[in-house]
Design a protein that fits this description.
80% helix, globular, mainly alpha, 0% strand
Length: 470
């Protein structure tokens, strides 16, 4: 077996740049497609809820299949890069089409267009996301190098998602006006189309840089498997399944908040100034998310192991949601009061996403020790699926909340007054108590099942090295 050389700074940067572009695209879809479908194109909340969950059921079959295809791929450019590039280009095209629904469509035609493009977006995203994360164990050594790259890549991904949170609404409005939009709906419709095009181009450029500079530095023995065998391998890797549950819970809580806070500001908290308030809320939250990944995680890592950091961040996020509940009940419409909980919640989420990636990479080594096989594509294909599953669950819950409390868009109206008191209370508590419940469940499952502490991983690495030496 070939010896893996230490990563260069250029390789690390190129890999991280790909994560920035990848998560810019993902966050645009995960957090803004419901807003675009419902608030801009006027699709009913119930139809959106069904669409999002149907797409995730489809992913349950598509994502594992893609993992098998990646595992079986052998080309002179490697196992991962061909699919990474193909998936990126096709996903970029579909992203643009998804946010460019012809305005003349309505009724069944509108729902059909939205459904086809959204499902195709999920398929093509899988094509590039699985090989992207599967590359980590293929060109890094277990331990500090892998943990360092995983943390860096996840930090870069957080930067990408945070940037989208910060700039989307303001950019959409500016681009819509530049393109000649006059009414609010026309401005948003044109703005989303042009913004999606810009993000799609950036995405392709960043991933192209990743493909140029990153190569597999050793041949990883990845045994191929049928879909049946793959699910069997996942079930046998109890640590991978535990981390998968944590990923679903963390991301579901995040996406529920991100989707409902837009409607909370627009229809409840500050209808007359919601565009600026939403931008400011996301700017502070996104900024602290970036800072926490770059500075808070390394700082905490000096004093705590990853498991303790994990629980600390769960507590931080829950505290932030409680503060939002208190603020919403005071009757204020000053968004400045919401900036503190935004900073707390997004700081916690930023660090959690870094840790989760480290945990998932560790389960690959655990699986090799336990089952005598490395299942990168199996495990990372499941990561792709569960992150999308989380966005689907969040989208379904958010859409049903809007449907139950009668919150819908009037495409011709300018929002100037809050919704009914019952709807306001329902939206407030749904936006906070549901994420709290999801996080608590995730923490309980993790506490009962996860065993891969820093000490345990050192033992696993030593045992694997001993096997290779023999």
């Amino acid at each position: 077996m070939e010896t893996k050389k230490k990563l260069t700074g250029g390789e690390k940067f190129a890999y991280g740049l790909g994560a920035v572009g990848k998560d810019m695209v993902y966050m645009l879809s995960a957090s803004y497609i419901s807003i675009y479908f419902l608030d801009v194109m006027g699709i009913s909340a119930a139809a959106i809820a069904v669409l999002l969950m149907v797409a995730r059921v489809f992913d349950a079959f598509n994502d594992p299949l893609m993992g098998v295809i990646v595992a079986k791929t052998k080309t002179r450019w490697g196992k991962f890069r061909p699919w990474l590039l193909i998936g990126t280009i096709t996903n970029a095209v579909i992203l643009y089409l998804m946010f460019t629904i012809p305005p003349e469509l309505d009724g069944a035609g509108l729902i059909a267009y939205a459904s086809v493009t959204y499902i195709l977006w999920g398929v093509t995203y899988t094509m590039m996301d699985i090989p992207y994360w599967s590359m980590v164990p293929a060109f890094t050594e277990a331990g500090k190098e892998r943990e360092g790259l995983s943390a860096f890549a996840r930090s870069c991904a957080g930067v990408g998602s945070a940037l989208i949170s910060i700039i989307t609404v303001g950019s959409v409005v500016a681009l819509g006006k530049m393109c000649g939009g006059t009414t609010d709906n026309e401005i948003n419709r044109l703005g989303y189309s042009k913004f999606a095009l810009i993000i799609a181009v950036i995405f392709v450029i960043f991933i192209a840089i990743t493909c140029l500079f990153i190569k597999e530095k050793s041949t990883v023995d990845m045994q191929t498997a049928s879909i049946k065998d793959m699910f069997k391998a996942l079930i046998q890797n109890d640590q991978a399944m535990t981390v998968v549950v944590a990923i679903v819970m963390i991301n579901s809580a995040l996406y529920i908040t991100q989707q409902l806070v837009y409607f909370f500001l627009k229809y409840d908290f500050s209808p007359k100034t919601y565009v600026g308030d939403f931008t400011l809320f996301n700017m502070v939250g996104g900024g602290f998310q970036i800072i926490s990944m770059m500075l808070l995680f390394p700082l905490l890592r000096k004093f705590m192991d990853t498991v303790k950091i994990f629980y600390t961040c769960f507590a931080m996020a829950i505290t932030g949601y409680v503060i939002i509940i208190v603020i919403s009940l005071t009757g204020t419409s000053n968004v400045a009061f919401l900036l503190l909980p935004a900073a707390i919640i997004m700081s916690a989420v930023g660090v959690l996403n870094v840790i989760i990636t480290v945990f998932l990479a560790n389960t690959v080594d655990y699986g090799e020790l336990k089952n005598n096989r490395r299942d990168e594509s199996v495990i990372f294909s499941m990561q792709t699926f569960v992150v999308k599953l989380a966005s689907g669950i969040a989208g379904f819950i958010s859409s049903m909340v809007l449907y139950i409390f009668h919150i819908s868009s009037d495409k011709k109206a300018v929002v100037a007054e809050p919704i009914s008191q019952a709807s306001r209370m329902g939206l407030r508590f749904s936006m906070t108590l549901i994420p709290i419940a999801v996080l608590v469940i995730g923490a309980i499952v993790f506490a009962k099942k996860y065993i891969l502490t820093d000490k345990k991983m050192s033992e696993i690495t030593a045992e694997l090295n001993s096997r290779k030496a023999q």
